[in-house]
Design brief:
Length: 154
Amino acid sequence: MFITTVELEPPGPTIVHANAAMLSMTVYTREELLGASPRILQGPDTDRGVLDRLVMNLRAGDSFEGCTWNYRKDGTSYQVEWRITRMRLKDEDVDYFLSVQRNITEENPPQQKIHRHIRQLNAMLNSAGAVIIPVDSDIMGDPEGHLMTRAHPK
């Protein structure tokens, strides 16, 4: 669990509290996290669309629920599911965000690995100048209905 300030524009928000479970999950020390932005946990596989939705929800005054890939201090990734809500401490006239996070990496590992490999493959194809076009599974003859892509040169 994190508690952060409510500034959404960089460099904020700022972590003002991290519990022991968060320290264990991220391998950061309390001193390293306090005063840092939760962005410290983002990396190459962090889903920008999920983060955009997070900011949109919080700006609108709504809570947020989502999952994406975060990164530990040592650079290893883990899939996180988290909920963020605005809160106010009883004796303070200041709002904070309460972020409750859970490592869900092992709950569905094969599917998560497939999605991760698809993102990596798409990134490699894009860097090679290919355009990824989703293809209807009926056209490609995939009886299980998996999403398939076909690379076309730019």
